Give the backbone structure.
Amino acid sequence: MRLDFSPQEETFRREAATWLEGQLSGPFADLRTGRAHDISAPERRKEWERALGRARWSAIGWPEEYGGRNATLAEQVIFAEEYARARAPGRLGHLGIELCGPTILALGTEAQKRRFLPKMSAGEEYWCQGYSEPNAGSDLSNVRTRARLEKGPNGPEWVIEGQKTWTSLAQFADWCFLVTRTEEGSTGARGLSYLLVPMHQKGVTIRPIRQMTGEAEFNETFFDGARTAAENVVGAPGEGWKVAMATLSFERGASTLAQQMGFRNQLDAIIGAAKDNGAARDPLIRQRLAEAYAGLKIMRASSLRMLTSAQSGKLSPEAFTYKIFWATWHRKLGELAMDVLGPAGELGTAAPYELQELTKMFLFSRADTIYAGTNQVQRNIIAERALGLPKEPRGGA
Amino acid sequence: MRLDFSPQEETFRREAATWLEGQLSGPFADLRTGRAHDISAPERRKEWERALGRARWSAIGWPEEYGGRNATLAEQVIFAEEYARARAPGRLGHLGIELCGPTILALGTEAQKRRFLPKMSAGEEYWCQGYSEPNAGSDLSNVRTRARLEKGPNGPEWVIEGQKTWTSLAQFADWCFLVTRTEEGSTGARGLSYLLVPMHQKGVTIRPIRQMTGEAEFNETFFDGARTAAENVVGAPGEGWKVAMATLSFERGASTLAQQMGFRNQLDAIIGAAKDNGAARDPLIRQRLAEAYAGLKIMRASSLRMLTSAQSGKLSPEAFTYKIFWATWHRKLGELAMDVLGPAGELGTAAPYELQELTKMFLFSRADTIYAGTNQVQRNIIAERALGLPKEPRGGA
Amino acid sequence: MQFAFTEEQDLIREAAQTFFREHGASQRVRAAMETPLGYDEGSWATMVREMGWAGIALPESVGGTGLGNVELAILQEEAGRCVQPSPFFSTVCLAAPAIRHAGTPAQQESLLGPIATGEARAALALTGAGGAPGLEGIGVTLERSGRKSRLVGEASYVVHGHAADLLVVAARSPGSRGAEGVSLIALPAGTKGVRIEKLVALDLTRPMARIRLENVEVTTTQILGEPEAAAAALTQALRLAQIALAAEQTGGAQGALETTTAYAKQRVQFGRAIGSFQAIKHRLADMMIAAEAAKSAAYYAACIADTAIGELAEAAAIAKSRCSDAFFDCAANMVQLHGGIGFTWEHDAQLYFKRARASSTLLGTPQYHRELLAQLMGLGAAS
Amino acid sequence: MQFAFTEEQDLIREAAQTFFREHGASQRVRAAMETPLGYDEGSWATMVREMGWAGIALPESVGGTGLGNVELAILQEEAGRCVQPSPFFSTVCLAAPAIRHAGTPAQQESLLGPIATGEARAALALTGAGGAPGLEGIGVTLERSGRKSRLVGEASYVVHGHAADLLVVAARSPGSRGAEGVSLIALPAGTKGVRIEKLVALDLTRPMARIRLENVEVTTTQILGEPEAAAAALTQALRLAQIALAAEQTGGAQGALETTTAYAKQRVQFGRAIGSFQAIKHRLADMMIAAEAAKSAAYYAACIADTAIGELAEAAAIAKSRCSDAFFDCAANMVQLHGGIGFTWEHDAQLYFKRARASSTLLGTPQYHRELLAQLMGLGAAS
């Protein structure tokens, strides 16, 4: 167990840092924001994705043939750190690169890999995720979107009917990876399939969902006879549940480190505000700032534990607890931000309802304990899968 | 809605205060401790109970014919306050006076009232409660102690077999009110009866349970062919569940105010310690002391709401929340006490394991959220009975 | 001793419930909050003209109903239950008590009369840009030169200041601190030199304004009561306002609990109503525990305010701190237990959540009130 | 970068688990804690002679194994998992680092040698009756007059002080404060003028003693290292001890979680294993979340201590505060979820609960360490 890096790894760090600095003080200086959630200037940000792709910094852990570098775990950690340190922008391509791409890498056919991965890592095609539905929020197995195989002009095609919700970045996406029911009459986790569906077609409609921040970063996406080729299914038809669960597990990769650096920027902004307005002298605020700082350090240590374990093929217990830990931490950070800012934090910056960054973070953080498994669902998973406690009786729906 | 008292009520207050002061600075000065949980000097404390009984201060809300004064609610509130203000000792007779007596008053026969209530209020007979069993802790309906009717020398008798646990004061009790299964083969809440059983007989064995404080205030009580006359059943045989539930509701009477005054003494001791050792200057400790103080004031207000509602025959919502509120409050008070005392609070006063009063309170308070319905069971009750949420599925045991 | 509502008080509550069932309905609240004024003028007119609520806690001598703080708490609770937007709190709970406790009988009559009859909406301009609660936060200076006086400075966070006909301005003599040098000045909103700017506030159901005073001339009759008594009067008025706000928060907590309970009964996940899962049930139970404790604190404080027994300062600090926490906890749970939908603009959870946050800050945070309470408890000064 | 245990470290853990399965069994712990010594001499002899654990983090030059703080953390974690009583913590985690960081090479060799081989049990006498953590709490004075020195005063809360052969006494020159004037003195327990009294401690598995020093004569060679370096050495040693204690707390949290999980699977109420109720499941999940975070904090800190990257002060403060809280939460839940039985003397829940409380206080409370952390974060001084 050691935390330091080898000389070769330090060389890699310098290479990454130099490239990032060159780009972000040069052609992409306008994108140097360090903001994780930012959907402004999408075209400009696609240019950034393509620049990353050209320099092979887009998906460094992937094999070289798909645009990656075969980077080691330590290198992935280093790059995530340097990316955040350089205050590089949030990745418009992250749903593809971090969720769908690894799923195809692990479970897709050779043809799927060749078709989808290079365009993903090159920033040429963007992805969104179609899991949640209005009646399948915490209970993903309740998916009602359905697809059937029909004859199409160029061979058999899946024809999809249904509604997905909380599809972030759908407005910028070229493709959607979605879980849909493909066996008529099936219920629960059986009979689902994991389809790859083009977004630019007549049968797909996107409607933004306005959040409590007043902004609309999520969407409802309607599939009304949308089509995709029969071969665009990852894993066997009917095995979509297993494939989707695999995707969920990829959410715990090196990207957690990038997320943490985003959190660090927020914490630094709060500390700065506390020093400015005197809240940093308040012993209660100090306790909470210290607690937040400690939590962030612990997240980093937990990520390194998870990543090292994942590398050795072991499932580590902290992986079960990571999501609820960061979500709860971040929600508390939002409350701390507001308490540090005091009444001034409740004033917006422009009519009709433009709020300050930290105020938006406070509101947005309330969703952290809801999406990707509510805290309640997370506790169930921990109790049942990690601790082996008996399952909750299911209703007879 | 008003909180002040009438001139007549103030006269009553003076009468009570004068009597208490006379006794507790006179013949009973040695009992002026203000400690609620105290099982030392039981004989001396039975003398105190008898003195209360002779002066009709023992069960003032009861009818005069059973030793009471027909006191109004306001008078009961006043007496509870003055009793605590005078730092009068905890009542050795409280399980009878506060739980069993009101049950007999409400649901007993005229003969039972005449037989049991006067001796209870006079401090001549003491009672303990036989509800919990090793396998019926939170789940009272799982009672396995059983009784059957047999012919005895003076008529039919209940013969009781089984084990009760957490029977506090059993070592000083003359009688036990106990819930037992009287219908063979019955399960759950059906087939239970509420029996009154003499403790001084061959078939009853008491074994103290040592607690984490090192002391033994509770007992296990074994019934091994213990007997009681057939008429000593409150309510109909088989209806014991309803009767026991009625008793539980009596726990929310004016005695809550006396309990609060005991809490106030503990809080005052903590405040005193904080002033002495400088902890009172610590802004975090100040917050917690203020929070504790506020909680206590809220308990008083809630008690007054409950009592006033009970008087008008209405079931008030705060009655559902009272137990978990005080139990959780008290448990936090224990933690606050230890944090105020600092390392010195972790040193005992005498070998082998005599701890300081507040340290014992810290340990003892851990039981508050367990007995008389754990916090988990309390939340279930609130959710199902007060909010009308669906019941938890029960296992098929 | 009778710690339950009287029959008359129950009737007031029923009337309020009937009123808010219509005027506090979600679509009306939302329509109102998006207007520049931020509230529904029709609803306001009904409240103050037909129902006569503006004068409920004012003496009959100035045209009020002559009831008290318990009755006011009932109205506030019901208004809070549906997060209704209106200048009721600023007018009746903030400005009116300040006038009543600071003003001479003549000032009371002239200023409270129009409030009681619903002709005037009023606001209390208290807190400067720094945002510190209480007297320490006053950001306006009253400069006296000879017989003329001038107001200079800024008050921010003025609840419904943009909708007020009458401003009650708290000011200080230059360089004064603490209870010294405080004055309260009655200022028609249209006075020369008064600049009122509606702010973008987190809580859209309770807009705030920034009020800049640029050498505003003040006559002696506009200064309420005797100068040396103003600080005490203002402190007393703020305690009453804190209690009224606590009552409103209690209603907010109750509203969040009711809506969430109803949702938990009908929303099905994993083949069961989610309200049958202990994870949900127990959080709803926790909400009820908090809400009931809040009610006890608020009713107790309102009672103390009316019967003059015990310590009002203490009761106000307890009520404001506890009801703030209870409302925030309940509103936060309302968001969480609704899942994704609770996070949307369309669902009312956001209204409760923002109101909870903003009302927790308003008139002093829970932490501020607990520190006050620590001082009242005799713990001395903090280190 | 390899943030997982090595194979060698896994072997150390397995050996420790095997050892504690026997020597940390409930009845042995209980029998030991009721003896005057408070621990089992046979178990201790096995630990230090056969297993060689006393020297695990000591250099080979003094007879140690030459491993580091990660290996020590593993042993502490496994010892904590069964709340095993022994002078290991006082000797190996408290006294030894103080000698190692303060002593001259000659002092290290003469004093650490017997510790590494298991011949000597040692204790650190640091904190006076006031109980303040760190250097501020030192209650012993070192009076120098000419070439003679004398120790006067009292150290309380001395972990396993009654069982120590060697005392490391922290002392101050008269009137000194902060890092100035601190010395560390090696004192055989039998020295004339040393009065050792075993105290009644809440946590029976870790007895403490009060040590009174009545004009105890000290030679120059007993004073460890250079006087001006002692404060820094002691501070460094305390940080390592805090990390070792944090590791032990992590084990305690894990032990509480495991025992309670097992109980929840077998205890039936309402016709179901209580572990099938979400109320129980979710609290167990919360315990696991806290325990895993504690492990991350403790392992990270132990790693920092060995690799000299990053800030040890920060890592120690984070580990000690978080692991204290995690252990207390887990132990409190252990009591609660066991119901009535968890409150009895016979059940082990009380041992975990008391150890959790006492170890939270020992070497600085979570609040103390968070305030330290606030200073390290550059927040300046508190008001």
Summary: The two ends of chain B are 49 Å apart (CA to CA).
